[in-house]
Amino acid sequence: MTVGRAPGKVILFGEHAVVYGRPAIAVPIQQVSAEAEVTDWPEGAAGEVLIEAPDVESRVLLSRARQEDPLARIVRLTLAEVPTTGRQALRLVVRSSIPMASGLGSGAAVSVAVIRALSAHLGHPLLPERQSELAFEGEKLHHGTPSGIDNTVVTFNRPVYFRRGGTPQTLLIQRPFHLVIGDTGHPSPTSVAVGRVRDQWQASRPETEAIFDEIAEVVERARESIAGDPDQLGGLMDENQALLEQLGVSSPELDRLLAAARKAGAAGAKLSGAGLGGNMIAFTAAADMGAVASALHQAGAVGTIATEVAP
Ligand code: PMV
Fold first, then answer.
1. pLDDT digits (tens, 9 = 90+) for 222-254
2. What is the atom index within ligand 1 of the atom nearest the CA of 9?
3. Which string of b and e fits 139-168 if b means at least 16 CB within 10 Å?
4. How far apart are CA 105 and CA 154, in angstroms?
């Protein structure tokens, strides 16, 4: 049996604007992850792959899977990378503790876990750069015009400063800081939020570009703050959130959790990922994490994760 894993992620600053060429900052989240297991499957016909995802009660043969099936697509892309003539049948089982369509990078993490397990099982483990490229192809199925930040951060498993099409840079972190992540329990497909921002951009391009520029400035200040004095990050999260609200991607559930976190002592908070649901993050002193997490639960969060971002 061969196992592949990949972590979840949160975007600290810059989502949406990153699709339009501005920078963004994201960090991996180890408390949640995707895992893929590959075993030989002697009962199967040569070349076949049985793809199972028990979490979503899915069981499908690769030869019968729809072209647009995201798991099958990743399996096909990976198999195309490795010599497979006369290959025996395989069984692939995928599990994930990352909530789906919630801004925590579930799609990218599942793809990377599958690519790792499958290529290693077939004796041709792919380099991280290639893993990320293949996962990026999978991301296109989830939301048409991905920036590439999700597949990058989960593949390289380290905090990144990212710009579309550029080489991702490892983020310099001066000293640890803490986040509480809260899940609204409302899944929100990335494509819907990305589509909403696109509509706004098409309807009023100069105004929307100006918002993206302001977000880019916040990202730059956040990068400096992370490299020096992270205590600025709370205020910067609030600024980024206000700009995301102007893009129309917050939601009543997110707003409720953000208000609860701030009231319980978080220095600042914002949605994370595509928005319109999914998860939010709160910049919180270590001593206040428990209070912020319980306030989030009381305000309706279905799950919270307290985490440290460390050098
Ligand atoms: O997939 P999510 O929900 O984590 O969102 C990704 C961030 C976006 O900027 C909204 C889209 C992208 O491709 O960067």
1. 999 999 999 999 999 999 999 999 999 999 999
2. 4
3. bebbbeebbbbbbbbbbbbebbbbbbeeeb
4. 8
Which tokens is 231 given? 């205590």
Q: Indicate the Cα dihedral angle 171, 280, 194, 232, nearest 10°.
A: -40
Please check whether residue 29 is in contact with residue 160, taking contact to mean a CB–CB distance below 8 angstroms. no
Total-model pTM: 0.96
Q: How far is the CA of 281 from the centre of ligand 1 (A)?
A: 15
CB 66 within 8 A of CB 72: yes
Q: Would the CB of 103 count as within 6 Å of ligand 1?
A: yes
Cα separation, 254 vs 240, whole angstroms: 14
Residue 250 exposure: Cα atoms within 13 Å on the Cβ side: 21
pLDDT for residue 84 is more than 90: no
Locate 6 and state its tokens. Answer: 């990949």
What confidence tier does 141 reach under pLDDT thresholds 50, 70, 90?
A: confident
Q: How far apart are the CA of 176 and the centre of ligand 1, in A?
A: 25
Alpha-carbon span 9 to 124, nearest angstrom:
26
CA distance 13 to 216: 9
